[in-house]
Design a protein that fits this description.
Elements: E1 24-28, E2 34-36, E3 40-47, E4 50-51, E5 64-71, E6 74-79, E7 83-86, E8 92-101, E9 113-121, H1 137-163
Parallel strand pairs: 2-9, 4-5
Antiparallel strand pairs: 1-3, 3-7, 5-6, 5-8, 8-9
Length: about 160
């Protein structure tokens, strides 16, 4: 591990279990994601930290607490579960920040956060309709060409057969 440092700035241990006591956090959706409009789940996966919804506001317990979700700079909620569903997000870029908190809502002594930026894409354009059909015109054109080719080759087979 060249150039690696532990959370306190020291050189990390090479022991396989040396990082078990350091909380970490993963966040979904991943940064750079492009999502369609609608409802989207924000999911956290804490490591070496237990989320406890029943202890929000209680006395602090080492390695236990909740997380706070911030969307575009505004606090959305404090949660003791691993996910929340965001609905009716406007099109465009959004930034989420998840930070682990003690039971009483204060940040951990060594802050543990994960953030990401994702984009809500505009809805896909409806395909043009042909005569009340919702079948795209390109598909209809392709099927027409295929029908002509099949009919043409069938006629050649009939002609060949009659020559024999």
């Amino acid at each position: 591990m060249v150039d690696a440092q532990a959370a306190d700035g020291s050189n990390p241990s090479t022991e396989p279990d040396a990082y078990i006591s350091l909380p970490a956090l993963r966040l979904s959706p991943r940064s750079g994601s492009e999502l369609e409009g609608g409802a989207h789940d924000v999911i956290v996966r804490p490591h070496d930290f237990n989320l406890n919804a029943d202890a929000i506001g209680d006395a602090n317990v080492t390695g236990e607490g909740n997380w706070e979700l911030t969307l575009d700079g505004a606090v959305v909620d404090t949660l003791g579960t691993t996910s929340i569903t965001l609905e009716n997000l406007a099109e465009g870029e959004h930034t989420i920040l998840a930070s682990l908190r003690n039971n009483d809502g204060t940040p951990l002594a060594t802050p543990v956060e994960a953030s990401g930026t994702f984009t809500i894409m505009p809805p896909a354009a409806e395909p043009p309709s042909v005569g009340g059909s919702t079948v795209p015109t390109a598909l209809l054109a392709g099927l027409s060409v295929l029908a002509v080719l099949l009919l043409g080759s069938g006629g050649m087979l009939v002609q060949r057969h009659s020559k024999i």
